[in-house]
Amino acid sequence: MTKRELKPVNYVAYGLNDVLGAGSMAVISGWILFFYTTFCGLTTVQAASIFAIARILDAVASPLIGHISDGLGKTRIGKRFGRRRVFLLSSIPLLPSFALMWVSGQEYLYYLVTYVFFELLYASVIIPYETLAAEMTDDYKKKAKLAGARILTGQISAIFAGILPSWIVGIAGGKDSASTFLVMGTIFSIAFMVVVFIVWAYTWERDPAERPEEEQPDENWTLAGTLKSLFLNLSSTLRIRAFRLHLGMYLGGYISQDIFNAAFTYFVVFAIGGTLVIASEMMALTYVAQLAAVAIAIPMVVRFGPAPSYRVAIYFYILGILGLLSLYLLSDGFSQYWLIGALIFAGLGRGALNYIPWNTYNYMADVDQIVTARRREGSFAGVMTFIRKATQAVAVMFVGIVLEAGGFVSGAETQSEQAITTIAATLVIGPMLVLLLGFWVSTKFKISKETHAVLMSEIERFKQGESTPSTSENQAIVEDLSGWPYEMLWGNNSVGKSVSEAGAPADGAPRTDSPI
């Protein structure tokens, strides 16, 4: 069957969804704790608990959404609207709920409910969306371009997330107020509705006839059956070695930014004598640097591979963090030029760390396919988001608890020396520890253009009925990526199978179920 050709409009449309994906998260991670503690009367622990509760609920819901999307093509709705894209279409009228999060003067329960609702809505869009690159093409370079389009768009939207408060304050005559954030939330809500519709209109899914046999429509498919097999799919994804390493790199890059973003506005306002406007402008500058870094990282990853590029990005990010530490320790007063320099270095590292995991994610289903002989993009998207959201909840809750324990007082115009020291230590030590963990994991990650080509060629051999590797070198590559002996690949294992399914190995292959 002839595959559809990816045109520039499809790359652009696919990338636009990160106005919602990265844009909303940039607004939330950069401003929500500050908004809650400055304009809503919440303590840092209360504010962080809202974030943590929403993330934990989202972490539970996300893999379920991914698993449902894998099987939705077997239903009447899925056959008509697509198993992935139907989620995008149904979310559009609900996206204005983002603006409701930014209404001041409400009680704790109001902020908890509005935040949780948007988080679950966000997951119902992002999880199916994250599978579309693998649905639309199998080509390594095209997947890299789709990932690049997504991250570039996300960085542009993040720039607006950073600079909008400054612009709104300027239009309002220099007055910082809660209305600044409500206006920002309304602007982004409108943008979310527009871009999700464009994504729905200009993307597509793999033709049902091209899916493996076990993914073909089953009239007996039910939600109860999906729930029953959910845990099996989730746990089985972690039995793929490349995916475990990918998660380590992903979390190293993103959790370091969660901690940094949660503490940054406090650091500018209280530790180095800046203002909300300066914090907004500097946050936008960081995202500009990130945008430039993504443009550099796209060809860099293709040429040198994701793992070496990832380590270079960590060097830049750490240099930026050390620059901020120097500003706090050595400067006699606020130095905007020093701050700009530090944030450019940090932004260059952060941008590449944002792009690289989403580039490598697009190949996880390929590694899984050689192990299971199945395509499970939705399950991988769900697990990835589950772990990401759960750890993000812990990270932000940690920041809130640390700040309050360090003497931070919500709503105060100035803070004690102890509180200021705690803010600076959180901004520096937290991100660096997580970055070093990601660095170590990257030394073991071997996916590249060359190894992916080997992987796909071995998958084709299995499809043709071959059961032995083409060369010993190719065998070693595939075993390193999958974490399984070659003779146990292509379904000759228990990965993703029920007990009854796992009982009889395919093709009579021996089974020890001892992954590499």
TrEMBL record:
InterPro entries: MFS_2, MFS_trans_sf. Keywords: Membrane, Transmembrane, Transmembrane helix. GO terms for cellular component: plasma membrane. Signal peptide: none annotated. The chain crosses the membrane at residues 12-39, 45-65, 86-103, 109-129, 149-169, 181-202, 259-278, 284-302, 314-331, 337-356, 393-412, 418-441. GO terms for biological process: carbohydrate transport. It comes from the Bacteria. GO terms for molecular function: symporter activity. Pfam families: MFS_2. SUPFAM superfamilies: MFS general substrate transporter. Belongs to the sodium:galactoside symporter (TC 2.A.2) family. This is Oligogalacturonide transporter. It comes from Microbulbifer rhizosphaerae.
